[in-house]
Amino acid sequence: MLRVAIQSDLKNLNPLLNSNTTDAFVDRLMFEPLITADPKGNPLPMLAVRVPSLANHGISRDGLTITYHLRKDARWSDGVAVTAADIKWSWQAIMNPDNNVVSRHGYDVIDRIDTPDDRTVVVRLKNRFAPFVDTFFAESDQPYMPGPAHILSHYPNINNIPFNSAPTVSNGPFKFVQWARGDHISLARNDAFFMGRPGLSRIDVKIIPDEDTSVNLLRTHGIDYMFQASIQTYEQVRTIPGVRIAWVNVNGYDALQMNLSRPLLRDRHVTSAIAYAVDKDEMVRTLTYGTQHVATEDIPDWMWAFNPAVRSYPHDPGMARTLLREAGWRPGPDGIMRKGADKLTLVMVTNNSNATRRRETLEIQAMLREAGIDAEIKYYPGDVLFAPAGMGGILQLGRFDLSMAGWYSGVDPDDSSQFTCKNFPPGGYNYSRYCNPQMEAAQKIALTSYDRATRTAAYYRIQELLARDNPELFVYWLRQMEPVSIDFRGFDPNPVIESWNAWQWSI
């Protein structure tokens, strides 16, 4: 049996309603996508027989038709075959406006899906969408897995159904056993899994909000894996006998998001002042023990779309204050800038379960104060901060000025779900509410061209615009730390999700 510690409880176990990396990690133990990726991010078929491409005619010459052929041996745990009907219905469920899905990015470009037989899925696109194969039930920034149409399709919506708390079927390496909310989720081996009999008989996912407790459990062999441990725990974890750290380069980062819909942040003087106030190098030095790399913009330096010419704002509190003065702000007796009776106070949020982000917010609070900006910190459980809008999600509902958060993107450099106008929440990941015509034009090129050189030039421009407009301050690119027992074998995460190959795990 494998024992895993996660930081926050899940809202539900429906693979079409997951909204963060913890949800996706647990869901992926029970449900499979069409396409996955290997540890280097190369796409691999899962429910599909092969990865569609222009070369194998899975992608039509005009780029508007994508064809998937499904495995014949994939079955739900009740013995019913996984068919094209599951894929088509799952897309319809994501697009159903009554469902609390967190993002429809990449699914909203579909005109229709044809199912000429049980094993063939023909997707007709409204327009060319270059990241489609790595997005549609694949390793995207929102990795949905198809659900069982024969169980769920009769519901008008899937927001509050028994399946969400106790999935009656799965098609992955494990089956649901029990969910004791706030305590643990138990899964048992699916002996009929189509990739072969899983190596583990059982997985217990323990919900432990306090990372110090998880570290102690690692030390006493009470758990075997500390899921997505924050860098704050590095010094403790690295010396525990019998524990190794797996470092995973992901297309992701820790960043300070700015809610540009808030009146104070609509002024570029203020957002630029924040950029000058934050000392990224100092944060990486003091918070990550040198294990992370300072980020320029969102795309990390190991990906093909990275722009090496882009530079971050230098740390300059004096320039920050100059910009605020130019915008009409003047320091009050406490050093905080004011306009008349209005004090320059911003609400900064993060998830309370992540020790590193708690420290990040405190450091940023001090840096902002040096520039004359007051930051009020509010902490939330992860399942509240990242929840869909219909479940009261703080980020989705825009109830913040600044947010210190992490982001896992997909194996494609596509970042349009965060920085395009149509992806405003609710139902999108553009938490900054950033909308710019130049960004829209660059994203259109990046999303509609299947040519690598053309897409690279577009992403170079996108990073230049992000550096200019500062909807987010990207502090460091993520090398995710995953502490595991040396007895835990087969653990080999891909850049999006740790549990993609869970059937190969053993202990």
CATH architecture of the domain at 249-480: Roll
Q: Fraction of residues in helices?
A: 10-25%
- Please write the CATH class name of the domain at 249-480: Alpha Beta
| CATH homologous superfamily label of the domain at 249-480 | Dipeptide-binding Protein, Domain 3
Which regions are unreliable across 5 or more consecutive residues at pLDDT < 50? Answer: none
Kindly state the mean pLDDT as a whole number? 95
Kindly identify the CATH topology of the domain at 249-480.
Answer: Dipeptide-binding Protein, domain 3
Descriptive terms for the model:
single chain; 507 residues; alpha+beta; Dipeptide-binding Protein, domain 3; 24% helix
Walk me through this protein's architecture.
This protein has 507 residues and is of the alpha+beta class. It contains 14 helices and 19 strands. The chain has helices at 21-28, 84-95, 149-152, 211-219, 234-237, 268-277, 280-288, 317-326, 355-370, 382-385, 394-397, 416-419, 437-448, 452-469, and strands at 2-6, 35-37, 43-45, 65-69, 110-117, 120-125, 174-180, 184-189, 202-207, 225-226, 243-258, 293-294, 330-331, 337-339, 342-343, 345-351, 374-380, 402-408, 472-485. The longest helix has 18 residues, at 452-469. The chain is globular. The N and C termini lie close together (7 Å).
What is the strand and helix layout of this fold?
Blueprint: E1 2-6, H1 21-28, E2 35-37, E3 43-45, E4 65-69, H2 84-95, E5 110-117, E6 120-125, H3 149-152, E7 174-180, E8 184-189, E9 202-207, H4 211-219, E10 225-226, H5 234-237, E11 243-258, H6 268-277, H7 280-288, E12 293-294, H8 317-326, E13 330-331, E14 337-339, E15 342-343, E16 345-351, H9 355-370, E17 374-380, H10 382-385, H11 394-397, E18 402-408, H12 416-419, H13 437-448, H14 452-469, E19 472-485
Parallel strand pairs: 1-9, 1-10, 16-17, 16-18
Antiparallel strand pairs: 2-3, 4-6, 5-6, 7-8, 8-9, 11-18, 11-19, 12-19, 13-14, 14-15
